[in-house]
Amino acid sequence: MKIDLLVAEIGSTTTVVNAFNGIDTLSPEFIGQGQAPTSVARGDVTIGLHEAIDHLKQSLNCDTLIYGKLLATSSAAGGLKMTVHGLVYDMTAKAAKEAALGAGANIHMVTAGKLRRTDIQKIKEINPNIIMIAGGVDYGELETAIYNAEIIVGLDLKVPVLYAGNVQNQEEIKLIFEEAGKLDYLYIVDNVYPKIDLLNVEPARKVIQDIFEEHIIHGPGMEHIRDMVTGSIIPTPGAVMEASKLLKNAIGDLITVDVGGATTDIHSVTEGSEEVSRILISPEPVAKRTVEGDLGVYINMRNIVDLIGIKQLCKDLEMDESKVQELIENHMPIPKTTDQIRFVERLTKEAILISAQRHAGGFRTLFGGGGKKTYAEGKDLTSVQYIIGTGGACTRLPNRVELLKEITNNLMGDKLLPNKQAQILIDNDYIMASLGVLSKEHESSALLLLKKSLKID
Predict the structure, then answer these.
(1) Which residues contact 80 (CB under 8 A, 6 or more apart)?
(2) Which of 128, 127, 82, 132 is nearest to 106 (CA)?
(3) How many CB atoms are closer than 10 A to CB 320?
(4) Which residues does 121 contact at the CB level (< 8 Å), separation at least 6?
(5) Please, are residues 380 and 361 in contact by the beta-carbon 8 Å criterion?
(6) What is the pLDDT of residue 138?
(7) What is the C-alpha to C-alpha distance for residues 264 and 278, in angstroms, rounded to an integer?
(8) How do 287-292 and 264-269 pair as beta strands?
(9) pTM (whole model) above 0.85
(10) Based on the number of CB atoms within 10 Å of its own CB, is 158 exposed (0-12), middle (13-18) or buried (19 or more)?
(11) What residues does 423 pair with on adjacent strands?
């Protein structure tokens, strides 16, 4: 059987391969999916990739499979670990963090100001895949980024370093790395915070994904990935963001919710309302990602149980405590019985509500010489027209639409959440991440396939 293109999603536990035909035509098709355990632990991720393709053959009922191109997203081996180092936490450090998160990174550390000895020790312990240095608006403060660059070069970590700070420092930073014999590890992009109250995160996001493709795929267990993957490779969360941005340009402002076993990710792509922007304290990126590492419905299930409380859980599920404890003790990654499904739906509801409230900004009342004034800070979601569900929980649970609709029941009136007119869309084929990486090379086909999966014209 001949397939135009395959996209592999190489996760921490499972590798999924999605098959597509009709690429670059007016009617591209998603034709099937195969999956297998990810094989990083076996020393070679391509073992699991071959097994997933074999499973795809079985599902398509064919003996041989010929494909034109293979693209991939990956969150295997811990995903893309980054540390971020800026000047002022609410300004350059925040801007650098937004750039990294939007690219699909897992942020393990954020610092502001000059690195201290304890910071240096922590960087060594984290052993990040990429280190990002920012600091100073253009033609502003110079010293902090220079100091941090000299410290980081001295760590001899053999890790790519991205500089996205004051443009005046670029030649000096280049000289520091050249004298240390590490110019090959240095990447320089436009300042993520070039002026006060101006974010410029997209150039850094693009380069972070380029670095991921160039360096991270050579890590343990990933060395042979290029033996099979012939197209783009980007971090899986970054691929979901790419798909979200593509869709926003086509249908309007949106948020994408992905409740997973270990984390809950929210991607929002919206400029917000004019009314709120006039009273916003500090700028927010148009495309923003937050990841809640404590909110997962399998690995971090007990965290959510604690947030709800056993008594409230018993009341909501209309079960006695012994039955609820039994569900907790025998919790499965994929629920099968009616009670297990109801339990996971309640966990998912909590994960959706808390992650949305953490992602959204809110109003603040401040008192000054002119009296009381109301300001806004954080991400404004009030203009969001669509709430999109992707990932296992938000695409497979029976009450997924109702669970996502909970975001619009804004019980906290000071939060900048979507209103009740927001429409719920489901990534029915569970291919949003695959289409994000597909959009890097075949944008029109990715958009058509996205609309088909979401069941919109």
Answers:
(1) 103, 104, 105, 106, 129, 130, 208, 212, 216, 235, 238
(2) 82
(3) 10
(4) none
(5) yes
(6) 97
(7) 30
(8) antiparallel
(9) yes
(10) exposed
(11) 386
Quote the Cα angle for 177-181-183, to 5°.
50
Distance CA 26, CA 444 (A): 9
Residue 403: per-residue pLDDT: 97
The strands making up 254-259's β-sheet, listed across from edge to edge, are: 287-292, 264-269, 254-259, 386-390, 423-426
Contact 268, 243 (CB under 8 A): no
Burial class (CB in 10 A: 0-12, 13-18, 19+), 41: middle
Pairing of strands 386-390, 254-259: parallel
- pLDDT by residue for the chain (457 residues), tens only, comes to 999 999 999 987 789 999 999 999 999 999 999 999 888 888 888 999 999 999 999 999 998 999 999 999 988 766 789 999 999 999 999 999 999 999 999 999 999 999 999 999 999 999 999 999 999 999 999 999 999 999 999 998 999 999 999 999 999 999 999 999 999 999 999 999 999 999 999 999 999 999 988 876 666 778 888 889 999 999 999 999 999 999 999 999 999 999 988 899 999 999 999 999 999 989 999 999 999 989 999 989 999 999 999 999 999 999 999 999 999 999 988 899 999 999 999 999 999 999 999 999 999 888 877 778 899 999 999 999 999 999 989 999 999 999 999 999 876 678 999 999 999 999 999 999 999 999 999 999 999 999 999 999 8
Lateral strand order in the sheet of 81-86: 106-112, 81-86, 130-133, 161-163, 186-188
74 within 8 A of 104, measured Cβ to Cβ: no
Q: How far apart are CA 154 and CA 117, in angstroms?
A: 13
> CA-to-CA distance for 219 and 29, rounded, in angstroms?
33
Q: Using an 8 Å Cβ cutoff, are 350 and 407 in contact?
A: no
Cβ distance 378 to 416 under 8 Å?
Answer: yes
Give the helix/strand (H/E) hosting 326: helix 321-329
- Residue 53 contacts by C-beta under 8 Å, 6 or more apart in sequence? 6, 17, 34, 65
For residues 357 and 360, what is the distance between their CA atoms, to the nearest angstrom? 5
List strand residue ranges (DSSP E) for 358-442, in order.
362-368, 371-377, 386-390, 423-426
What is the 3-state secondary structure of 372-391? EEEEEECECCCCCCEEEEEH
Q: What is the β-pairing status of strands 186-188 and 161-163? A: parallel
Closest CA relative to residue 334, chosen from 286, 396, 276: 396
C-alpha–C-alpha distance, residues 205 and 208, integer Å: 5
